[in-house]
Amino acid sequence: WAVALLLFFILFCLGQRPCQGEDKPNNKLLFLVARSSVLDPFFEKSVVLVLPLAGEPLIVGLVINKPTLLPLIRIFPKSPALKNRTENAYLGGPVAMAVPALAFHTGKPPKQAIPLYDDVYLSFDLKFISKLVEDPKETGDLRLFMGRAQWAPEQLQGEALRGSWYSLRAEGGVIFDHDSEHLWKRLEERANPPTSVEERAPRARRPGAEPLVAVKSRPAVGR
Fold this sequence. Notes:
The structure is a single chain. This protein has helices spanning 2-13, 72-75, 126-133, 153-161, 180-191, 197-200, and strands at residues 30-34, 47-50, 59-63, 67-71, 88-91, 95-105, 114-117, 120-123, 142-151, 165-170, 219-220. It is an alpha+beta fold. Helix 1 packs parallel to helix 4 (153-161). The protein starts with a helix and ends with a strand.
């Protein structure tokens, strides 16, 4: 309940209304898009998928737009499905960076994974992940993240109050977007679009003053 209330609070602070309707996986997903004022060495220009984990005391997310130079075939050298593929692992966050998480498509919901939206699932189960990527039949989109981001509820609440994040409802293929270099900029512009020529030019403001921007409810649809 604490996590659910905090997500409601974040949506309220960032100018969005919480999702309505049935409690489906795609109604739970939220992207946090770092504002340009965030200078943290890890979260600067980050897009974070907030995971729909029930009963957790912490809020857990995955940074989805920071690829490493480590090919998946180096992590799973016995996988015939990866021999002709060039995907690299992504750095999901600064916590437990040796622990993998795999996002993937499937038509059969596995018990070792949590639903995200449509046919997309996420697993932290190492044995299941290894079996999945070593299966030659699995040739669809895969995205492996090493590590995770996590916050205590009051910690993320404080960041929301300071205006560190925009929020977008997570839909479409953003998780598997191959243009990671420009993903943050595209979503940042979608969350905070300029409404006039004047707003496109930088304007001086008082030191310490935070920009007040109303974020409209938009799906974050990937390419």
